[in-house]
Amino acid sequence: MADINAVAKQFTDFYYTTFDTNRATLQTLYRDNSMLTWEGTPILGAAAIAEKLTSLPFEKVQHKVTTLDAQPSSPSVASMIVSVTGLLVVDDSTNPLQFSQVFQLIPDGGSYYVYNDIFRLNYGA
Question: Residues 5-34: pLDDT tens digits?
């Protein structure tokens, strides 16, 4: 297996750069059986996930990753769980939002696709 942390970093760099510049193209990272849970709401399938991501109510967004952790998720397949925390700057706001996101990546040819994706904003108590 390739260095799991290097793969996770490469994936998240690509994912968040793409999200910040052209969210619609993220659909290629998902499959029909992929699931996104966005703030507690489950969304199934690549097309529905892309629709959700492109309909979010902001013009500009910038993700700033602060932590990144990865673990293998299967003893027999080179799949992995990737956990991310960071800051989300929306429409040039001076008050970034804290977020957490977890991906389960499944090998697909020489690359990976997102099987599971869980996203939450983290609000202070």
Answer: 999 999 999 999 999 999 999 999 999 999
Measure the CA–CA gap between 55 and 58, rounded to whole angstroms.
Answer: 8
What does pLDDT average to over the chain? 94
Tell me the mean pLDDT in the region 55-81. 94
Q: Which 3-state string (H, E, C) describes 61-124? A: EEEEEEEEEEEECCCCCCCEEEEEEEEEEECCCCCCEEEEEEEEEEEECCEEEEEEEEEEEECC
What pTM did the predictor assign? 0.94
Q: How far apart are CA 52 and CA 116, in angstroms?
A: 15
DSSP 24-61: GGGGGGEEEEEEEEETTEEEESHHHHHHHHHTSS-S-E
